[in-house]
Design goal:
This protein has 286 residues and is of the alpha/beta class. 24% of the residues lie in helices and 23% in strands.
């Protein structure tokens, strides 16, 4: 039996979150949830995450896992809000410790633990996460960040930012800890899955000429048509293309607030003496 996949698109950040469920047991997992955040006022809301909870309740689903494909740089995670309401543990790749070590220096936060303890479970390549009669298999797919993982369940794979839709290409590899050559090898690993494997994107920005967002494709479609890494594109060619393109890209709008929260599993930095939480804006640090 295949997993049922429900997608939730957040237009403010172009992010797609997923509710993945086993029809037989009604066990479910949430992948890459978004916390609504207004960078102009610093205010937060939970409308996006609550829509997923409402869909789970309507389907009689029990949330067993909250899965992060990586520490996102373009949206804040709603993992803690969902954990508080479902009791489900928050999961991320074990290499999150590398991200924490790098960024605790950027934010001058020597007291922040960098051993991943903020998360409930750190997973490594080949680990399995049960979901009723089904199970997720973890594939370590770094390159965009060191901690990127893919969660494969049956004929579906949730690939984070490694790939976009075929007409848009691939993830950037110029964040701290990113590497274009490593990204190429991770993508080739994903594209070695069976051709009919359904690939679910974490973002869609609507490639030129396309009038609607899309977030599901297949291994076969990516191998045939991806504008950056279709079959026939070698490693050196991809690295040259990726590095050249990355030099033209601006930093994501929410990278500084996002990383501070997401490397803590969706928790805020500790409040200061006045009881207020502050997010830092390091100058000329990236």
């Amino acid at each position: 039996m295949s997993a049922r996949v429900q997608a939730f698109f957040d237009p403010a950040t172009y992010t797609v979150s997923y509710l993945v469920s086993d029809p037989a047991s009604r066990d479910a997992a949430i992948v890459d949830p978004v916390l609504d955040f207004d960078p102009k006022s610093g205010r937060t809301a939970t409308h996006s995450a609550d829509a997923i909870l409402a869909a789970a309740a309507a389907g009689g689903l029990r949330i067993r896992w909250i899965l992060e494909t990586h520490a996102h740089a373009d949206h804040l995670s709603a993992a803690q809000h969902l954990k508080a309401r479902s009791g489900a543990p928050v999961v991320i790749g074990a290499a999150i410790t590398q991200v924490q070590i790098m960024f605790k220096g950027v934010f001058n936060d020597p007291d922040m633990p960098a051993d991943g303890r903020q998360f409930d479970r750190l997973v490594n390549d080949g680990d399995k996460l049960p979901l009723g009669t089904l199970e997720f298999e973890v594939l370590h797919t770094p390159g965009h960040t060191p901690a990127c993982v893919t969660y494969r369940i049956g004929n579906a794979a949730f690939i984070g930012d490694t790939l976009f839709m075929p007409d848009y290409g691939t993830a950037r590899a110029d964040f701290p800890g990113g590497d274009a050559r490593t990204l190429y090898r991770s993508i080739r690993r994903i594209l070695a899955l069976p051709p009919e494997t359904r690939l679910f994107m974490c973002h869609d920005y609507k490639a030129p000429g396309r009038d609607r967002v899309a977030w599901e494709t297949t291994v076969a479609e990516e191998r045939a048509r991806n504008v950056h890494i279709h079959d026939g594109v070698g490693e050196d060619e991809f690295v040259r293309l990726r590095q050249a393109r990355d030099k033209t890209l601006e930093m994501p709008t929410l990278i500084l607030p996002s990383i501070q929260v997401n490397m803590r599993a969706g928790n805020w930095p500790p409040p200061e003496a006045n009881g207020t939480v502050y997010l830092k804006l390091p100058v000329n640090a990236l």
